[in-house]
TrEMBL record:
<feature type="transmembrane region" description="Helical">
    <location>
        <begin position="331"/>
        <end position="353"/>
    </location>
</feature>
<dbReference type="InterPro" id="IPR051408">
    <property type="entry name" value="Phosphate_transprt_permease"/>
</dbReference>
<dbReference type="InterPro" id="IPR035906">
    <property type="entry name" value="MetI-like_sf"/>
</dbReference>
<keyword id="KW-0592">Phosphate transport</keyword>
<feature type="transmembrane region" description="Helical">
    <location>
        <begin position="209"/>
        <end position="228"/>
    </location>
</feature>
<keyword id="KW-1003">Cell membrane</keyword>
<feature type="transmembrane region" description="Helical">
    <location>
        <begin position="86"/>
        <end position="117"/>
    </location>
</feature>
<dbReference type="InterPro" id="IPR000515">
    <property type="entry name" value="MetI-like"/>
</dbReference>
<comment type="similarity">
    <text>Belongs to the binding-protein-dependent transport system permease family. CysTW subfamily.</text>
</comment>
<feature type="transmembrane region" description="Helical">
    <location>
        <begin position="137"/>
        <end position="165"/>
    </location>
</feature>
<dbReference type="GO" id="GO:0005315">
    <property type="term" value="F:phosphate transmembrane transporter activity"/>
</dbReference>
<keyword id="KW-0812">Transmembrane</keyword>
<keyword id="KW-0813">Transport</keyword>
<dbReference type="GO" id="GO:0005886">
    <property type="term" value="C:plasma membrane"/>
</dbReference>
<feature type="transmembrane region" description="Helical">
    <location>
        <begin position="51"/>
        <end position="74"/>
    </location>
</feature>
<dbReference type="GO" id="GO:0035435">
    <property type="term" value="P:phosphate ion transmembrane transport"/>
</dbReference>
<keyword id="KW-1133">Transmembrane helix</keyword>
Length: 362
């Protein structure tokens, strides 16, 4: 008895009403290439001085949405074409959202890297420097000191306020605190600087007062509501069953908060604190008003003016000397340093959140 093996017929995905697996990626790359060719021709014609990368990505993605819809419509039918169109629109929205970030980071790195890599940028200040040379050590130290003190002020106040609103707050006082926290979240940063300046001017009877601790107070005004809001949301996510289990064992409320609620929400709280630091570390207006600016080193938060990185970037750009390019290079290098610090804080927040997040067993 003999058996015959029938080979499966070869089918083409195009004739079977389905596009090839990587057709979407191929259409996207082809759309970008076509758009790049158009922009290249425009550049050669003299209508544009440089090649427009952002325009190429944007218009290429728009062309991809149209092309993938038409191709899918004629091959796969209207239902699958609509599905691919929505997917393409989501992809286009993602690309458009990334374009400003990519452009910002690329511009900052390209313009700031030459001065950033000079050996004196992190080892010298701008004292007695008129043209090229010098560094931003005084600004980096000022930023770290002022932001560090602002964090020491804001985190205990914000965390204790969040605990009160979540665990104890009831009635008018709780509603009033919530209202004022919401209001403080939206106040302009320059108002915080004016508040700190007016406060210390009245306390010390000095209308021209400028010192680093005032800048820390101004930043803490901006930082406290962010800490309160983020910590409050994290505390609300702790299941009530954990609290009730602790109460059933006779554990007092304050110890339940300390040993159960806070450890459970620690990862989210730390992430919120890191985000609040990243939010205030780049503020210029309040620090320019109350901390002032200087070209010299100053480690004393309670005496004389103190330079910070945002103010350093502003003054280097606004007060350019004879060697204009040197001032611009230092401004871009200061901006690059700020971007790297914020990226480091976000990376640190993710690591801490992963390390301290609750380990769920099966």
């Amino acid at each position: 008895m003999s058996t015959t093996t029938m080979a499966a017929p070869m089918t083409n995905s195009l004739t079977a009403g389905k596009l090839p697996k990587h057709s979407g990626l191929a259409v996207l790359l082809g759309s970008w290439l076509v758009t790049a060719a158009v922009f290249f021709v425009v550049q050669l014609s003299g209508a544009s001085e440089s090649f427009n990368i952002a325009g190429t990505l944007f218009f290429g993605t728009v062309l991809y949405c149209v092309a993938i819809y038409l191709l899918s419509y004629f091959v796969e039918g209207v239902r699958k074409a609509k599905d691919r169109l929505v997917t393409a629109l989501v992809t286009a929205a993602f690309v458009v959202a990334l374009l400003p970030l990519i452009s910002l980071v690329a511009t900052t790195v390209i313009n700031g890297l030459p001065a950033f890599l000079t050996p004196t940028f992190f080892t010298a200040s701008q004292r007695n420097v008129v043209g090229a040379g010098g560094g931003a050590l005084h600004a980096v130290m000022g930023t770290l000191l002022i932001t560090g003190v602002a964090t020491l002020i804001s985190v205990p106040i914000g965390l204790l306020t969040a605990i009160y609103l979540t665990e104890y707050g009831r009635g008018r006082l709780s509603r009033a605190i919530t209202f004022f926290v919401d209001v403080m979240t939206g106040i302009p940063s320059i108002v915080a600087g004016l508040f700190a300046f007016a406060l210390f001017s009245l306390l010390f009877n000095d209308p021209g007062i400028r010192f680093g601790f005032g800048g820390a107070i101004a930043l803490s005004v901006l930082m406290i509501p962010v800490v309160v809001r983020s910590s409050e949301e994290m505390l609300k996510l702790v299941p009530n069953e954990l609290r009730e289990a602790a109460y059933a064992l006779g554990v007092p409320k304050w110890l339940t908060i300390l040993k159960v609620v806070l450890p459970t929400s620690l990862a989210g709280i730390v992430t919120g604190i890191m985000i609040s630091i990243a939010r205030v570390i780049g503020e210029t207006a309040p620090l320019l008003i109350i901390s002032g600016f200087t070209a010299s080193m100053n480690y004393d938060l309670f005496n004389e003016r103190m330079m910070t990185l945002p103010v350093f970037v502003y003054t280097q750009y606004a007060n350019q000397g004879a060697d204009t390019q040197a001032y611009l290079d230092r401004a871009w290098a200061g901006a690059l340093t700020l971007v790297l610090i914020v990226m480091l804080l976000n990376a640190l927040a993710r690591i801490i959140a992963k390390l301290f997040s609750p380990k769920l067993g099966r």
